[in-house]
Every structure is written in structure tokens, then in C-alpha cells.
Amino acid sequence: KGVCCVPGHDSGMLVFKLERERPAYAVYGNMLYYVKDRFLRQLDFNSSKDTAVMQLRSGSKFPVFSMSYNPAENAVLLCTRATNLENSTYDLYSIPRESDSQNPDAPEGKRSSGLTAVWVARNRFAVLDRMHSLLIKNLKNEIVKKVQVPSCEEIFYAGTGSLLLRDADGVTLFDVQQKRSLAVVKIPKVKYVVWSADTSHVALLAKHAIMICNRKLESLCNIHENIRVKSGAWDESGVFIYTTSNHIKYALTSGDHGIIRTLDLPIYVTRVRGNSVYCLDRECRPRVLNIDPTEYRFKLALVNRKYEEVLHMVRNAKLVGQSIIAYLQKKGYPEVALHFVKDEKTRFSLALECGNIEVALEAAKALDERSCWERLGEAALLQGHHQVVEMCYQRTKNFDKLTFLYLITGNLAKLRKMMKIAEIRKDMSGHYQGALYLGDVSERVRILKNCGQKSLAYLTAATHGMDEEAEALKETFDPEKEMVPEVDPNAELLQPPPPINPLDTNWPLLTVSKGFFEGAIAAKGKAGQMAADLDMDAPGGEGWGEDAELRLDEDGFADAQDVLGDEAGVAKEEGGGWEVEEDLDLPPELVSMPAGAGASTEEGFFVPPTKGMSPTQMWCNNSQLPVDHLLAGSFETAMRLLHDQVGVVQFGPYKQLFMQTLSRARTCYLGLPSLPCLHGHPLRNWKDAGAKGGLPAVGLRLSDLISRLQQCYQLTTAGRFEEAVERFRAILLSIPLLVVDNKQEIAEAQQLITICREYIVGLTMETERKKLPKDTLDQQKRLCEMAAYFTHCNLQPVHMVLVLRTALNLFFKLRNFKTAAMFARRLLELGPKPEVAQQTRKILAACEKTLTDAHQLNYDPHNPFDLCAASFVPLYRGRPVEKCPLSGACYCPPYKGQVCRVTQVTEIGKDVIGLRVSPLQFR
Question: What is the pTM of this model?
């Protein structure tokens, strides 16, 4: 249609759009305002009535780029973005209250230059002008005030009195009234911003990424897409629905996301309500698409713990597919998936995961595979469900394990059967082993004799007092060829201990409260069972009177034995509705009987107490600081926290620190002799910890690291650079494992990071400089550049003197006198020793005679720059920079995703929460 240009080349073709296809629109309440064919149109979502409300001013050859609507004044700002950004303009229109849709009015708008204009109050709007400064204007398009803002490329609405400012690295929440930044989040090149209806959440849309934040611009989740992100809108339930070129997708604030449906052509979502997605296509036509929200509503209900809604959807919705099952397993709800999965193999795996042996047994019977029986046997054995274990061993014909199971449960009858089975199978080893377990000496003698082991058979019989059998065996020996073994006179009879209390029932399990889903399903089952009982009892009637009476003889206890005998179980269940007399005169022997004489043995069943929570588990629950999880021994969660907070991806260098920290976590002391040691868990908040609020004592302190810093300074002064770098790096890696109590110490920890970074970068560069050759002019120039860069590291004065002297000498030898003179002046300002100052003044006097540089170097001392810690080249202000999330070391963009050269553990350019060393940082 004349909107694309497709040039071809040898290996393919490229497609370029000649015009912007995204329509400009704004949504307020049930109304959609959008621009189409030089008209501002209004669409009512409820009635689907689409009318033109006014005609726009003509004259611009560029389409409207963006729109900002003011419901209080019924005004609209339309921004037009030109190819040359300096020629961009915006128009301020007041929308007519009443207009003819067939012949709409054409009000005269107020046009001014500006990149973007958005409303910030009822009668104020902000304009980002061509100089990238912020102007606040009134409804007359007059400048009210100018606001100084940080570097800004684009502005977005952020509620009354606030704006979102986009720069190259991220987005800043800016308060226009107070003229200060409230929060910053890192996400490059944000193109669109979508707020939820209550402005509690915001979605930041970049070209291939989405970041969802809360009102304070704290990142909740990041989503990366391989295809361009086109648009998005918030669902009524708080789910963000967005589109790419090919799909409609959803994103929960918890980070879960997925595909809802595919698209033939790109669309731009304007509103989501129920099962409908309201959108505009590329031809600016309003459309309504139907979607199935079951999947994301199900996940949202799980995240929000709305278990009634989850249960309803499990029973009524068609939730099928491996993705839902995998999601439930990942989130720790395998029992939910168990209720609607029909595939027996999947049911079996889920039942084992949630410990449901009964369901796993049913699935194993249906599958009848050896691998399933083996897995079920292992799971049942862990729970002490030995009856199921027995069945599994029988199905897999694992006779050795089955024999041992009968031994440890004390089932001698079945153990004797296993011995007979081994004899039938001609398994001499299993046969003899069974005889050993049973203590059957005669059987052992017979087995040894049948195996041809006459000597062992004779010794066994003689040792165990079987004299007749021993004499019979002795006669079979040939005196000339065989020697009769001697019997040890000190031999004793060893018999396996008999089982005093054979284990007939399964091992008792702890009584735990059922989960919501198990309880709901069980309640449903009980209700059905109760209904069945009532149906069985219903045919009763008035004939119960005579049969329910207890007929007593003259003495009053003629039928007492019958009652306590055969009908004891029935009498136990009789309630108040039965016509039974309770105050009977019973004989003394019956009165003195125990109350539970005729009751079930289950009345004495012991229910062990529920296991409490260990102190280490409480530490993990009470804190989000990595060191507390390390002290608790939870390395996995500590690693996850370090990854999320400071971007650690290589944990090898942390191994020694982790083990040292764990070794300080607890104390050991002897309670009673002959018993194992007891463990104590020292707390740092023992005064106000209470029962469950404890936090571990931390052995590493900020003051310790500061004292170690002095040792690093001494090594630097002595010129032992490699050893100094290792010491500085050890301090740097230890800082995330600190716990501090106040804001001053937090600032000191941040300052310590800066010191370590500056020294590591500088000393590493100096070490590399000394390794470089210096034969050619280019090599000498590179040596001078690195020496000059070193002078911009923030070092202690004593070290800066040494660095400046090195740079001064190198530049003087290269005949770059102008730069050498600058180094000389900086050196004299530091107040060096008299002899050093005297020599420096001589060099300065020589340089001032010829204040020129003989060679051009990649070094501009007057232009502020950061130093790339990998390539050791300057990154001047305005150039893109990637930083290490822990040390703050700067890198060129190609190094993004690599491991930081300073820390050797963190990922360059990773988006993280930030360093957390104090509970104050979580408030």
C-alpha cells in the first residue's frame, strides 16, 4: 500500500517503513480518543458508538506522534515528531462539548515547538523543548516556569505533579513541584509507559523488553521478548496484557508471563475488559478480539492465595497441558494438578512429589511398570509405609530387599516363607541368609552339607550342640585324605534377637493440618459418604421402640455380659436419641473394669508433636541479607540474594568466604557425658528477638574491613601491586556479607566499595602497563596514555604523588611538555617532600619554555571521563557506558554480559536491586 520500501541485496532483503503506523490514542474511563484522517474521534466502549468530535489543524506533513488527554478541562495535547527533532511541534486543543459528527467543528489550536507535551495538573502541562529542558505551561500556552531536570530524552505522564524522565540508561520518577528525583530504575530506551487504573503499577515498554514497577518505581519483574513489543493495557484484575507483532500475551507482577493467542496482523491494545480486548489496527479501525483469560486468572489466583477461586477453576475450567502442570509443580502446588490430571504417568509423578502414597499406588497399579514400582517402593519406605513397600518388592521380585524388610519388621512367618522360596529358586545364598536371620541352626547345617561344605557343616553342628548330627558328619571324613577341623572350646551360641513387638501397622506419621485443596476434596468426599449413610438409615420408622429397649431381668443385669461382649462396638456408637437407660446397677466386677476394655486399640494411638522450626530456618525467614542465609547454612538462597542484589554470577571466589562465615554460625558445648554435643546459635538481637525474631550474630564487621584497608595501602606504597589487588578484591567481595545498623555505616560501606574499585582499576592498569613493550612510538604513546589515566583514579595523596611523578617523567621524555607541565602543577599542589618538589619545579621550568605537545594522544584532561576497566580507554561524558552492579566499574558496551574484571564475580550491565547490608534498606 505504499508504506514500505524493500531494497534487496545478495543475501536477502530489508524492509523499511516510510510512515509511522502506530495511531495516537488516549483512554479515559469508558472513552477512547484517537486520531484518524485529520479528525479526533471518540469511541464509547460500552455502546461501541464511534463519532468524530473535531477536525484537526492541517499543514503538518507528519502524523500525530502521541496524545495526552485532560478530562478536567476536556483538552488534548497532540504531539507531532518531525524527522529533524528540532522541528517537532505540539498542538493544544479544547474539545467542543457538543459537535456534529457529520460535520465536526474545527477549533483553532495553539501550536508551539516542543518534542513532547503531557499534562501534569488540571491546568498545567509540561513540555520537553528542543534543548531538552522542561517547561511548565498553562492553558493559554504561556510559560509559567522552567524546571532544571537531569539529562532527559523523553517525558511521560506519572500522575498529578509527577513525570517520568527517560535518559539513555533508565527512567527517573521526577516531582515537578519539589524539583527533585524520587526514584530511578535502569531500563534502556523506554518507548511507552502504561499506568494501571489506580496508578499503583506501571509498565515500561522498550523495544524488546517490559519492566513492571510499583508506584515508587521499584522493579517487580523484567520480561524479555525476541519480537518487538507493540502496546499494552492493564486488565481489571491487575494483569498486564501486551502485544507483540505476532501475539497477545500476559504478564503478572510476580514475573509469570505467557501467550494468550496469536495475531495475524499487529494491533494496539486500548483496553481489556473480561474476555474482550479492545484495540486499534494499523488502519486505525477499532476492533474487539475475544481471548481466554483462564490461564492467567488461574495463576493470579494462585499468586494471591485465592484458593476458593483456584478450586472452582480446577473443577470447572478446562485446565490441561504440560505448561500448567509444570507451573503448579514449580510453585509448590503439585496436589492441585493432581486433582485434574488424567494421565496415569503424570499422576504418578505428581503423587510422589506431594507424598500421596495412596494415589501413587493406584497409578502404579494402572501402569504396572517395574520402574514405577521401584520409585514407589523408595518413596513409601521414606514414609515408613512398609505395607506398600512389601507390595512393591513383591511386584519387582526383589527377594533380597523383601527378606530384609520382613526381618526389620519382625515378621518371622513371612521370613520363613522367603527362606522356602529361596530353596525352591535354588538360591543357596538367599537360603542360607534366611536361615541366619531366623536362627535356624539345623537348616544352616543342612544347607552347608548339601553345598559340599562338610567342614563348615560339622563346625556349625558341633558348635551349636547338635552332637548326633556332628558325629554323623564326622564319619563321612576320610582320615587319610581329610582332616577333621577342631572345634573352638570357647565358641558360644549366637542367636538373632527375637522381635518383641512385630511391626504390623505402618510407621506413625505426624498429624499435620491438611492444605486447602486436600481439605476441600476430603470435605466433598465426606459429604457424599454422609449422604450414603443417611440413605441406609432412612427406612427406620416407629418400630425402633421395642427393639431398642434393653430387657433386664429381676436383678437388673441379666443381659450385661451380652452387651459387653458381642455388641460392645454397637453400644459405643449409641447416642442420646436412643432409648437406652444409662443409670443401670452393674455388678462390682464390671464397675471396676477399665473404661476402654472393650474399645478399639486405636484409642491409645500416640500422635507425636508437630516438629518446630529450627533457629536457622527462622534466620532465613526473618532476613533478606545474604550473610544471614549463609550463617543459616542456606547457600542456595544466599547465592540467589547475591545474584539479585549485586549481580554475582561466579561463586567460585566466594567459596572460602562462605565456609568461613558458616563456621562462625554456631557454638558447640557438652551437655551430658556419653551424649553428642549440643549446638547454640548466638544472636545479634538477643535482647528483643523473642521466640521467632532471632537474627544470627555476624563475625565480620565494617571496622575489620577498614583495618584491612590500611594493610592494602602499605602494600601499594611498597609497590607490591598484584598482592595489593588481591587484598583489595577480598575486601570488596566481603562488603555484601556485612550487616550494619545505621545510614552512616551504609554510606561508609559504599565509600569502601569506591576506594577498592579505584585502586583495583588503577593498579591493574599499572601492572598491565609495565608488561607492555616500549620499542615503537605507538607503544610509547600507549604507555603515556595509561599513565595519564592512572592520575584520574581517586587515590590517597601519598599514592597520587607516586602516580603523578611517573606520568610526569613519561610525558617529559615523550616531549609532550604542555601535559607534563599540568602534571607538575598537580604534583606540587599535593605538597610532596622537599627534594621531590625541587625536582618537579625544575621539570616545570623546562616545560614552560615550550608549552606544546609533540604527539597527539587519546587523552583530554579537561573533558570528564570514566575509565573502562577492561580495555583501559576513556569513556567521555555522553557516551554509552555499562557498569558493574557491585563495584560500579565502567565498561564499554561490548563488554555487557561478561564477568567484571574488578570483582571477577559479577555480570557487567546486569539489572539488580542494589547492595543490601542493613535492614533499614528494606523499609
Answer: 0.49
